[in-house]
């Protein structure tokens, strides 16, 4: 039996007691621009500094987003006395070095997904943060979106029964430019790290770490994974089937199928979206959930920023809904899949 109605989301609403932190951005590229807009429009956080390898680029970004301090290096930004938290928006290959620099300067850090290129690097970051007593969080924005809080409540309440399968895909048609960071091995390119990390984290949230990882797919001429399907086995026989690709845009939906009910998350499942809860047969009524907050697209990046501030205010050193242990485990799954694809 489905519930009569869906639970309300627990929102990371700005102005609900979280500190108004002073943020500095390293890597003023594409996602940093979206983050800056979301932060300014939809949070009580303050964007005060930006650094780039080029002062001109940092200055242009600062002018566009009304940022006070313009800095010419990561080191200057992380050591700036008016920065409380560093948002790392560089390519993944630089996440470890920038993250460690921020931790060494005693700053909290929000690091774009994937947190690092390998699980060993992620472990290094997690250990450094725990030793320093600062908060490190992967910018896995899906975890902080309204729909995710409702889905977690449905899972915790056992509404789905015994979850048997997670199916999710994330394919984008990225121009096959060998200079693009996604095609360059030394920049941590490849579909799995950049896009596949979303399906893998969905599987991890629902079913935990896999007991086995099987990857089938192909590589680009530049030596990164171009497309793959991962089959993950889990305890009690549940399976995750997860597709990612740099070559073709897919529906980007997520399905969580249980013995009593199924959640079908509309594409793009990892962004602010809607979902349907259906019963176990064709004839049951369905329940539809839509995001009531009005925040669409990359405005949804604001939820993770307010969440981080709330966690800092609570004295936490990791996210309670995406722990460092789980973050490392997700990259470890990707490590195994990438090794299989490279060797096949
Ligand atoms: N949450 C999301 O939805 C989302 C979406 C897209 C991307 N991302 C993630 O965000 C990160 C950046 O992606 P993007 O698409 O924004 O890339 P991008 O547009 O290429 O921007 C990255 C910026 O990092 C700086 N940078 C480049 N190489 C660097 C290096 N080796 N060391 C230090 N800084 C370097 C560059 O700025 P300067 O040259 O000025 O220093 C560049 O503008 C990636 O980890 C990606 O996976 C997340």
Q: What would you note in describing this structure?
A:
By secondary structure, the chain is an alpha/beta fold. It has a domain at 143-293 and 323-343: Dihydrodipicolinate Reductase, domain 2. Helix content is 33%, strand content 23%. The protein is built from 9 helices and 14 strands. It has helices spanning 30-42, 55-65, 74-79, 95-104, 119-132, 146-156, 191-207, 301-313, 324-343, and strands at residues 22-26, 46-51, 69-71, 85-88, 108-112, 136-139, 163-171, 212-219, 225-233, 239-245, 254-258, 261-265, 275-279, 286-289. The strands form 2 sheets. An 8-stranded mixed β-sheet has the order 8-9-10-7-11-12-13-14, covered by helices on one side. A 6-stranded parallel β-sheet has the order 3-2-1-4-5-6, sandwiched between helices. Helix 4 links the parallel strand 4 (85-88) and strand 5. The structure holds NADP nicotinamide-adenine-dinucleotide phosphate (NAP).
Quick summary:
By secondary structure, the chain is an alpha/beta fold.
């Amino acid at each position: 039996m489905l519930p009569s109605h869906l639970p309300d989301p627990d929102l990371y609403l700005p102005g609900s007691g979280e500190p108004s932190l002073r943020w500095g951005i390293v890597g003023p590229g594409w996602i940093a621009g979206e983050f800056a807009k979301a932060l300014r429009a939809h949070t009580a956080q303050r964007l005060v500094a930006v650094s780039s390898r080029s002062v001109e680029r940092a200055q242009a970004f600062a002018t566009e987003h009304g940022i006070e301090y313009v800095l010419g290096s990561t080191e200057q930004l992380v050591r700036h006395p008016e920065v409380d938290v560093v948002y790392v928006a560089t390519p993944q290959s630089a996440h470890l070095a920038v993250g460690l620099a921020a931790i060494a300067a005693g700053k909290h850090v929000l690091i774009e997904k994937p947190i690092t290129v390998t699980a060993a690097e992620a472990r290094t970051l997690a250990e450094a943060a725990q030793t320093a007593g600062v908060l490190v969080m992967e910018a896995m924005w899906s975890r902080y979106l309204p729909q995710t809080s409702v889905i977690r409540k449905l899972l915790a309440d056992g509404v789905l029964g015994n979850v048997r399968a997670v199916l999710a895909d994330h394919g984008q048609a990225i121009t096959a430019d060998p200079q693009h960071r996604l095609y360059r091995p030394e920049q941590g390119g490849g579909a799995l790290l950049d896009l596949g990390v979303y399906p893998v984290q969905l599987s991890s949230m629902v079913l935990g770490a896999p007991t086995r990882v099987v990857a089938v797919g192909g590589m680009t001429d530049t030596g990164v994974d171009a497309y793959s399907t991962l089959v993950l086995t889990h305890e009690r026989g549940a399976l995750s089937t997860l597709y990612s690709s740099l070559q073709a845009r897919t529906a980007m939906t997520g399905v969580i199928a249980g013995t009593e009910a199924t959640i079908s998350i509309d594409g793009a499942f990892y962004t602010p979206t809607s979902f349907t809860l259906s019963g176990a047969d064709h004839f049951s009524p369905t329940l539809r959930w839509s995001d009531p907050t009005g925040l669409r697209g990359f405005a949804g990046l604001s939820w993770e920023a307010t969440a981080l501030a709330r966690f800092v205010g609570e004295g936490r050193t990791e996210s309670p809904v995406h722990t460092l242990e789980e973050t490392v485990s997700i990259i470890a799954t990707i490590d195994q899949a990438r090794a299989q694809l490279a060797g096949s």
